[in-house]
Amino acid sequence: MSVQHTNWLAKEKSPYLLQHAHNPVDWYAWNDEAFAQARTESKPIFLSIGYSTCHWCHVMERESFERESIGKFLNENFVSIKVDREERPDVDKIYMTFVQSTTGGGGWPLNVFLTPDLKPFFGGTYFPPDARYGRPSFLQLLEQIAGLWRERKTEVVASADELHARLELITSRAAKENLPLTPELLKRAVQMFKESFDATNGGFGGAPKFPQPSIPSLLLRTARRFGDDEAVNMVLHTCDRMNAGGIHDQLGGGFARYAVDAEWLVPHFEKMLYDNAQLAQLYLDVFLASGDPRHAATARAILDYVLRDMTSPAGGFFSAEDADSEGQEGKFYCWTHDELSTLLTPEEFNVAAKYFGITKAGNFVDHSHPHPLPGLNVLSLANPVLPAADQPLLAAARGKLLAARVRRLRPHLDDKVLASWNGLMLGAFARASAVLGEEKYRSAAEKNLEFIRSKLWEPPVQSAIGHRPSAMHGTLFHRWRDGERDNVQLLEGYAFLLDGVVQLYEATLEPAHLDFAGELAGAMIARFYDPANGGFWQSPAGTGDLILRVKDDYDGAEPSGNSVATLALLKLAAITGREDFRQPVEATLQLFAARLQQQPAAMAFMLHAVDFWLDEPRRAVIVGKMDSAEFQSLLRAAHSVYQPNKIVLGNTGAVEPFAKTLVAKKEATAYVCTGTVCQPPTNQAAKVKELLK
């Protein structure tokens, strides 16, 4: 019988940390108490970073961290610290950069060895429990590191100091003067993406294949600029293939994090809030660009999934769902041939098996488990074109499959609420409410913002006229869970929420949302902007548990805080006319200009901001009685055209001065303007669409 342990993580709120609260490892959270312990005992720190829905984190826990022998060795020779990368992406960024620069790769779990002053000297990702492929077992590695520390500590510390200096060099950045940002930059970037396009399966690059919504959405918006039909077709093909693949939950909506193959068929089944927020926006884009209702249906299915399975009663959006259930990856989502033939009538089975690509042998094998379940099929749209007579049979089969799946044990839900990811999803719901005319999506966005403001936003102590010093700005904290918020502030929290609130203002034209966007932008600039060199730090000054301040410069699965802040501030500056919102953008674009020219794939979302910045945006100003049907019709018309470089605003509240001069001719009137030049005013929705095109 195994011994039940309880370590320091039992006091934490993070679902990931709580998963490790009963390991025999005497885990600490990332805090001063742990650092002091390492200094007092003169022990190296073993830092392990992951997240609660990370499959290989579960594997390493099962293989190593639950072992008494490994727990005993770690406790005797190291101070062990666990970090939830979703709660502390700033900590993760520093040590991931170290591991990538020293090993050439990265991922989670991320395992790094540090000196007591938090400087890394060795690291990697997953370490196996047994020696294999010429690599030592995890315990052998621990023994080697402990021996080095015991016998050659001075050399290890000197090496850590040298590596830290190199890390500072890697992460430091200064603007190169007079690097032009022109449409040619966008053309070159698009050409690079085209060269990696998978013409058969869609997407960019090979297996494993991530959706990377920043790339197809960039191609779509630059196609608008350059009249590039080839780029449009690449995006439409990519979205069609992703939609048809197993990466897309064909029953319940929403997308898994990535596919392990190039065909989008076999997913890594974890579902992340940030992926689904970005994909909802992408499918809204392709719906507006193509007019194909299938893309609108995909966006709706994503948002309905989030409302059903990822939203708290109070309106906060949860973070993720696991890949595993009952110890097996994908078990919740997969089906066997025999299971379906028992569940469905013969007629329903024949239609469903053909439509979803069900075979006796199956199409999914969980290679990460020592005893994979046989004959599993992940559902995909293998033969999506059905005769009309078969549609009722498919609908009946779907209903039975969903009902059967509801009775299964669901994957673990990571129910923490993050300001950053909630900002992304808030923006998706807000925009969808305007594009699709769905009141429930507007309600979800409003309720979410109310939740974030009540749980994670601390208003300034007192207000003052004009600009306030940093201390007088409101404060946005990062995580809420189980009745408590954390004390962490992060650029991506402020930036992603700002972007979402700007979209909510554009979808509703409620002046209070614009006021809050202004407060949030002011606080973000005060706390994170670097006036000396441009760009935004990932963490505010004085964050004492970080060995470096870093400016995030990579748009990967999530866009960087710098990229989102840049585009959100550009939009807000255009809506409000405030130069103090636009000035940091100019300096930030200049700071990253060299990286944008040399490695555009690394900052695809920042290129969205470049595209917006290059020209005066088109403005749709809707004025009149906001609760009238005419006003709402014009507002929806303004959102129903694919015009990425436009803003939608009213004539009241904190909008720019020219908009305030525009008045309603009847119940409601729309003005489509560029600068201070407007087309003749109209109260016809069709005319608004025509002018915006």
- Sketch the major β-sheet: 4 strands, mixed
Distance between the termini: 70 Å
Low-confidence stretches: none
Query: Tally the helices: what do you get?
Result: 26
Strand order of the largest sheet: 2-1-3-4
Whole-number radius of gyration? 26 Å
Give the helix proportion (percent range).
40-55%
Protein structure class: alpha+beta
The backbone outline, from C-alpha atoms, is globular
Note the quaternary state here.
Answer: single chain
- Beta-sheet strand percentage? 5-15%
Number of distinct beta strands: 20
Task: Spell out the key features of this protein.
single chain; 693 residues; alpha+beta; Glutaredoxin; four-stranded mixed beta sheet; 10% strand; globular
Overview of the molecule:
The structure is a single chain. With 693 residues, the chain is α+β, with helices and mostly antiparallel strands. The protein has a 4-stranded mixed sheet, with helices on both faces. It has a 4-stranded mixed sheet with strand order 18-17-19-20, with helices on both faces. A 3-stranded antiparallel sheet has the order 7-8-11. The protein contains 26 helices and 20 strands. Among the domains are: 8-171, Glutaredoxin (3-Layer(aba) Sandwich), CATH 3.40.30; 197-414, no CATH class; 617-693, Glutaredoxin.
Short description:
The protein is of the alpha+beta class.
Record the SSE blueprint:
Layout: H1 15-19, H2 32-41, E1 45-50, H3 55-65, H4 68-77, E2 79-84, H5 89-103, E3 110-114, E4 120-124, H6 138-151, H7 153-171, H8 183-195, H9 214-226, H10 229-244, E5 258-259, E6 267-268, E7 271-272, H11 273-290, H12 293-309, E8 320-321, E9 324-325, E10 328-329, H13 337-343, H14 346-356, H15 391-406, E11 413-414, E12 417-418, H16 419-436, H17 439-455, E13 457-458, E14 475-476, E15 479-481, E16 484-485, H18 491-508, H19 511-528, H20 561-576, H21 579-591, H22 593-598, H23 604-613, E17 618-624, H24 629-639, E18 646-649, H25 657-660, E19 668-674, E20 677-678, H26 685-692
Parallel strand pairs: 1-2, 17-18
Antiparallel strand pairs: 1-3, 3-4, 5-6, 7-8, 8-11, 9-10, 12-15, 13-14, 15-16, 17-19, 19-20
Helix pairs in contact: 4-6, 8-9, 9-10, 9-11, 9-23, 10-11, 11-12, 11-16, 12-16, 14-15, 16-17, 16-18, 16-24, 17-18, 18-19, 18-20, 20-21, 20-23, 24-26
